[in-house]
Amino acid sequence: MNAEAEVHHSEHIPQWKKDEIKKIVDGVHSHKVVGIVDVRGVPADSLQKMRRNLLGKVEMRMVRNTLSTIAFDSLPEGEKAKELAKYVDGQMLIVYTNDNPFKLYKLLNATKSKRAAKGGDIAPSDIVIPKGPTSFKPGPLVGEFQQVGIPAGIEGGKVVIKDTKTVVKQGEKISAKLAEALTRLEIMPIDVGLNLMAAVEGHMLYKPEDLGMDEDLLRDMFAQAAAHAFNLSIEAGITTKDTIEPLIQKAVMESKALAVNAPIFEKDVMDLIMSKAEMEMLAVAKMVAGKENALDDELKAKVQ
Amino acid sequence: MEYVYAALLLHKAGKAVDEAGVSSVLKAAGVEVNEARVKALVAALEGVNIDEAISKAAFAAAPAPAAA
Amino acid sequence: MEYVYAALLLHKAGKAVDEAGVSSVLKAAGVEVNEARVKALVAALEGVNIDEAISKAAFAAAPAPAAA
Amino acid sequence: MEYVYAALLLHKAGKAVDEAGVSSVLKAAGVEVNEARVKALVAALEGVNIDEAISKAAFAAAPAPAAA
Amino acid sequence: MEYVYAALLLHKAGKAVDEAGVSSVLKAAGVEVNEARVKALVAALEGVNIDEAISKAAFAAAPAPAAA
Amino acid sequence: MEYVYAALLLHKAGKAVDEAGVSSVLKAAGVEVNEARVKALVAALEGVNIDEAISKAAFAAAPAPAAA
Amino acid sequence: MEYVYAALLLHKAGKAVDEAGVSSVLKAAGVEVNEARVKALVAALEGVNIDEAISKAAFAAAPAPAAA
């Protein structure tokens, strides 16, 4: 309705644009989640493929930025998706889904791949050239590498990188010459894919940094939590089906340790006690093995 | 870590580890629930096999056969 | 183990690990609470430094032979 | 841990590890017996082959990386 | 091992490991008490730091590969 | 451990490891002998193949497993 | 190895490891004493930190099956 109001104030907007705007507003209202995706650098055919792959899970709509902005702006005050207008920029599209924003982020992330850099690309992270050999034969390449700051040299008839070096920092522009060198080195620094810039679900706006949960880290945390519970159970003697056997084993080990270390002469541990004594004796014998006549021949043979 | 404990509790109890469950367990423990974190946890669990994760480390402390 | 997770959750949340707390956390998880188990848990944890206990290797008696 | 030792002691002595037995051993040691813990112990031992568990202790020396 | 179990039970319960204590624990477990063994046990533990002793590698070392 | 060394000494010297022998070796070392421990030692060694037990210590020379 | 056993016996008993001590312990065990060896051993042990030597090696290795 607000869209209509907006449209009403903009008499010069042709009907097809009004329809587009209404579609966006309807899309926002008919899905749990709406997001803005940056598709810069994604070739049209790849985009088509991604759209097909996401069919049924994520709906992707390519809309003119101006119309997107008008549509988001037209949303009523207090509607969180209104804020998405701020993220409309560059080559973008709108995505809708009924999954949650985390799932959306994961799905979109899965579309990403790496490509070679072109002059003018912005480094998405520090680009580091690792030290080591290359497959190139000596030639003008060495000079070209050096020109863009790559510490190249020649060793054993091959071009080598003499030191690990960061050639571009995150956020810096990659020059055409450097891009060429990186391509030769088969370094593909540029992310291609659907970059979620922001997503709104209900009253919450999520940015990518809110959405990226590291699954490995989560696995570690679960392992840690389980270890905590286990350790606490054993320390506090909490007897459950899960812990009773380890508790028995702990008790038995403690008993044996006490019997051996005290020592307490119990049949179960006599062999351990005797071998412990023997080991101690051998250890001491070893200390004096080099001294003239300190040990008999049998013992000397054992410790040398 | 509270969120992970809550998830493990639900999991061990044979319940679904969903937003409602995690939130209500946390609330019962007096934790002020951060909805985004709950959502993030539940979403991330789609790709995590909890039993596998805990079997890796948790009971490594125990004698292997006993823990089995 | 649910009971232990409930205790850990309360502890991490800075709450007392008492019968009422453990019970309400378990209930929130949909667990049918066994009062005797709750009592046993709380009793076992009495006087235990939980932070210390959770980080202790469960089988201290085990290896470290070289260090011995 | 005293509860576990009481159970082991009874078992070694060839007695049944039941609530009455555990309680009386603990009492003899001057321990104020917590009934819930005794119950939990006996319940946890149901179906457990204690001799087998004991024999596994020999190999229980594996270090606890997770706990570390 | 009953005697050692009895000693550790007392120790874990925070009680002194003396002849009277060990004897009464053993009796409560239905063990026919051998006084000389009780005396030997108590004598062996004199001056021993039990907590330290039990946390030391018990088995003159579980062989690494077997434990793996 | 002095009791164990006394036993090992007697054994190596080809003497019987009995109460009289252990006591007199200990006395010669100036040790105040505890009869109960001597009895316990001799009793515990009954049926134990000492040569076999100490031959296991041969591995001691190699500190490899300890480092593991 | 009787000589080293005797030395360790004295050391563990908290006595000085000197010629008189080693000789009398050996004699009590029925060993015919070689005085030169006693002298050599006592001299060799001078400056050796026996406790350190023992603690390094004590748990270096152990019989897997024995522990079972």
Automatic annotation (TrEMBL), chain A:
<keyword id="KW-0687">Ribonucleoprotein</keyword>
<dbReference type="InterPro" id="IPR022909">
    <property type="entry name" value="Ribosomal_uL10_arc"/>
</dbReference>
<dbReference type="InterPro" id="IPR001790">
    <property type="entry name" value="Ribosomal_uL10"/>
</dbReference>
<dbReference type="Pfam" id="PF17777">
    <property type="entry name" value="RL10P_insert"/>
</dbReference>
<dbReference type="GO" id="GO:0002181">
    <property type="term" value="P:cytoplasmic translation"/>
</dbReference>
<comment type="function">
    <text>Forms part of the ribosomal stalk, playing a central role in the interaction of the ribosome with GTP-bound translation factors.</text>
</comment>
<comment type="similarity">
    <text>Belongs to the universal ribosomal protein uL10 family.</text>
</comment>
<comment type="subunit">
    <text>Part of the 50S ribosomal subunit. Forms part of the ribosomal stalk which helps the ribosome interact with GTP-bound translation factors. Forms a heptameric L10(L12)2(L12)2(L12)2 complex, where L10 forms an elongated spine to which the L12 dimers bind in a sequential fashion.</text>
</comment>
<dbReference type="GO" id="GO:0022625">
    <property type="term" value="C:cytosolic large ribosomal subunit"/>
</dbReference>
<dbReference type="InterPro" id="IPR040637">
    <property type="entry name" value="Ribosomal_uL10-like_insert"/>
</dbReference>
<dbReference type="Pfam" id="PF00466">
    <property type="entry name" value="Ribosomal_L10"/>
</dbReference>
<dbReference type="GO" id="GO:0003735">
    <property type="term" value="F:structural constituent of ribosome"/>
</dbReference>
<dbReference type="InterPro" id="IPR043164">
    <property type="entry name" value="Ribosomal_uL10-like_insert_sf"/>
</dbReference>
<dbReference type="InterPro" id="IPR050323">
    <property type="entry name" value="Ribosomal_protein_uL10"/>
</dbReference>
<feature type="domain" description="Large ribosomal subunit protein uL10-like insertion">
    <location>
        <begin position="117"/>
        <end position="187"/>
    </location>
</feature>
<protein>
    <recommendedName>
        <fullName>Large ribosomal subunit protein uL10</fullName>
    </recommendedName>
</protein>
<dbReference type="GO" id="GO:0000027">
    <property type="term" value="P:ribosomal large subunit assembly"/>
</dbReference>
<dbReference type="GO" id="GO:0070180">
    <property type="term" value="F:large ribosomal subunit rRNA binding"/>
</dbReference>
<keyword id="KW-0694">RNA-binding</keyword>
<dbReference type="InterPro" id="IPR043141">
    <property type="entry name" value="Ribosomal_uL10-like_sf"/>
</dbReference>
<keyword id="KW-0699">rRNA-binding</keyword>
<keyword id="KW-0689">Ribosomal protein</keyword>
Automatic annotation (TrEMBL), chains B, C, D, E, F, G:
<dbReference type="GO" id="GO:0003735">
    <property type="term" value="F:structural constituent of ribosome"/>
</dbReference>
<comment type="similarity">
    <text>Belongs to the eukaryotic ribosomal protein P1/P2 family.</text>
</comment>
<comment type="function">
    <text>Forms part of the ribosomal stalk, playing a central role in the interaction of the ribosome with GTP-bound translation factors.</text>
</comment>
<dbReference type="GO" id="GO:0005840">
    <property type="term" value="C:ribosome"/>
</dbReference>
<comment type="subunit">
    <text>Part of the 50S ribosomal subunit. Homodimer, it forms part of the ribosomal stalk which helps the ribosome interact with GTP-bound translation factors. Forms a heptameric L10(L12)2(L12)2(L12)2 complex, where L10 forms an elongated spine to which the L12 dimers bind in a sequential fashion.</text>
</comment>
<keyword id="KW-0687">Ribonucleoprotein</keyword>
<dbReference type="GO" id="GO:1990904">
    <property type="term" value="C:ribonucleoprotein complex"/>
</dbReference>
<protein>
    <recommendedName>
        <fullName>Large ribosomal subunit protein P1</fullName>
    </recommendedName>
</protein>
<keyword id="KW-0689">Ribosomal protein</keyword>
<dbReference type="GO" id="GO:0006414">
    <property type="term" value="P:translational elongation"/>
</dbReference>
